[in-house]
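Hi Y.,

Following your request, here is the sequence exactly as I used it, all 168 residues.
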Amino acid sequence: MATPLEIGNDQKILLDNEYRKEEEENFSYAMQLVFSSVLPMSLQSAFELGVFDIIAKAGEGARLSPAEIAAQMPANNPEAPAMLDRILRVLASHSILRCSVVGENGEKDESNFHRPYSLNPVSKYFVTNEDGVSLGPLLALVQDKIFLESCYRLVDSLVHCDLIPFSS
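Below is the corresponding structure, written out as tokens. Let me know if you'd prefer a different format.
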């Protein structure tokens, strides 16, 4: 293999750019893994708050703003719409909800806009159907504190033979 001195400058720059791109992709994936608990917790919060049912009750193809959704929740926090918007953006970034950016009065003014959210085929599994069924209770089970605490004991169970992680 040629050393950097034996490679032409253009080829060295190309190799450097390829290496940099690969490093950025690897770092991006590593960060995704670090924050991997954010998505299920956001999904759980949205389900507990009734977000999916609220949007579904608004009708087929309904697009609601965080303020419109929060108005139908038992929330008395004036910051609820902004906080809810953060949760909904996480879900939209993972294609669990649809999101569009709309300027006030239909204009393209970037300083004055809102984000309406709507259901998509995936989010419909978290809407309670006429029989009272959805994936929400299963999500709640998997996100339950006791279940998650068992996962935290995996390391200790490997180190100490007398501990069984899912036994309590």
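The two ends are 57 Å apart (CA to CA).

Thanks again,
Q.
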